[in-house]
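request received
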Amino acid sequence: MRDVGIVAFAESQLTYGTTNTPVEMIVPTVNEVLKNAGIERTEVDFWCHGSCDYMTGQPFSFVAAVDALGAWPPIIESHVEMDGAWALYEAWMKIQTGEANVALVFGNGKSSAGDMNRALTLQQDPYTVAPLWPGLTAMEGIGACAALQAGTVTERQMAEAASRARRDGAKNGNVLVSGSESADELLSRAVTSAPFRDHDLPAMADGVSAIIIAAGDAAKRIAKRPAWIRAIDHRIDHQNLGWRDLARSTSAAIAASEVGVHNDKVDIAELHTTFSHHEQLLINALQLRPDATRITPSGGALVGNALMAAGLSRFGHSARAIFDGTADRAVAHAQQGACLQQNIVAVLEGN
Amino acid sequence: MSDKAADKPLRVRMPIGIDYKWCAGPASTDYLTGLKDGRLYGRRCPVCELVYFPPRNGVCARDGVMLGESVEVGPKGTVTTFCIVNVPFLGQTIKLPYVAATIILDGAHLGFSHLLQEVEATDVRMGMRVEPVWRDKSDWDYSLENISHFRPTGEPDAPFDDYARYL
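response:
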């Protein structure tokens, strides 16, 4: 295996209701991550993009994103119909094959382009589920009920996750909602979509995230302290909600075990929590100890969920903690699909 | 298997649809509002200085930067390449044969496709100088269809070197 490290990260200001096109949204963040790395675009030998056509309502809308990259002389690029974290996974594999040394990956989403609660239903089984329009919140509600009934997550844990996300979001600044309410205060609020209260749902955002990863010497040349991807694993649960145990995340547990989350201490874990009950499900699956590991210090997707970018941002914020020495060993997690269907878990290290 | 009706497959109709809000973005907004007024606006790349008409997605695909100042171009232009359409197809409204041409407007550096009329297909050539024929002003919308077609101006052809770089 080649040593591959994250060497630069950039994230757009999160908004809701941008009047820019997706391509116009991407350009500044791609240029910013190049600037953060201090390299020219010609030094990037693989580009990979994550986005979702259902969000724009245009087939092959991702093709236009190549306009944002300055693809002259011609570049080698690819796209995943997934969060940008999966673009990072593809780029990491490309570098492992020896066909690339420096890769720029990015994910973008404009949640304000439509009713994403409905649009994301289209990612479900097109014959038996999508036509019923369950909506993402309802599907996640089924998952949360299963977890609450099984006792793998409690209502208080959901409120604590939301409370911490809102307080961390206030420190981060680049989020859509923040607050200083205690878990008790949040629990006293009305249930709006059982079993959820409003703060249990993600604050949908428009945004872009970009990361540069590089192999060995190139990584050392670009970054003072690269966040080395020591291990990365992607696992998938069955897409049919009825065929899964929604009270636990089996795929996240397997991925965590494969990458050896517990081979050493974990300073921080950036978890891609889009609904508040995900956090405890992931803590269970990754067997994290909140007294020993700082959970999602960026605030995470609950307080700013730029679809298709928020997972990649978890890698970015984990890497940032390594860059600045806040952490020596970090876990980055990203998810995709309803009820944590797909999970990527990676271990990042500074040394 | 006794009840015939129960053996019939159940059919349900579940039409699906989503409404989207599409923002044209600042560059295309200039372009579209210009068309509504019968004017043609492109945008200049601050790096390569080429003028994009239409301004595509508001970025220079060559340099990966946002396009800069708005530039009025045309209305005359030059045919760079063209296609003579001889094959009838469903929904066809234009008399065969006709010419679909790639045109670069004066002051712009990116070709776009439009219909060429008021000329025999066999007379169309690279470098031919053309001008837009606008529809009646009452029909104008935020659309390039405000131009019914292009037609030859009768000026001498543009030299190949003038447009060779932008083919």
